[in-house]
Amino acid sequence: MEFTKWQGCGNDFVLIDCRERELADYGAFAKKVSDRHFGIGADGVLVVLDSNRADYRMRIFNTDGSEAEMCGNGIRCFARYLRDHGVTDRDKFTVETGAGILVPEIVRQDGAITGVRVDMGEPVLAADEVPVTGYGSGRAVDVPIEVAGSDWRMTAVSMGNPHCVVFVDDLASVPIERIGHLFETQARFPKKTNTEFVQVLDRTHLRMRVWERGAAITLACGTGSCATLVAAVLTGRSERAADIILDGGTLHNEWAADNHLYMTGPAVEVFSGTVEV
Q: Does the entry feature the keyword Amino-acid biosynthesis, yes or no (predicted)?
């Protein structure tokens, strides 16, 4: 099967176009090709499919074979693939995801593509819809949580997938490698969670590192960057538009007046090839 390898802020993906040939087990395929020693190497697999609800459909599979509802960096790469490989001749189109129908738009400067802007939809703040237990249908904003024997404060946000945003004074001192999995599997999150650790640099610049559900530490998380901005605004830490500085690059996000999150960032094809399935 032909594939292309993509990265958005260092969050990297193997993309396969399955509109004409579907695989029997996408999860097993993702586990195989995502392995960085015995496979192609990636944070996950993006699958291009036809849709009867939107122009195209995107499925996302993590390195552990589980399926994610949505991936912000992934949808930018997905959009660039569609445009660059002639699947569409439009710069704006709709994509069906597990988090609903989203709208990516190719960004150009002097005619050249410089990135992708995505309408990521509205954040979900009702705790039982994130989901996080213990707060009913109310919001879990700046609330206590115990992880690894320590007390933390978190804000729960869903961008179609669950996020636990934790603000810290010194990001470099947080042992994400040790505690990330413990946040992911904390009992309050029945579907597990992505966790963003965030240091506020100023009101328009937020430094974020992420432990992704099903993928561990990655260089970037697009939905996580959106959840981070929402949490920062709700707790009075930032303006409604800010740069989210990740290990792999920077995303510019805006929580607009229409309550939608708009994320703008790069998407780059790294190489292409074929792989046995």
A: yes
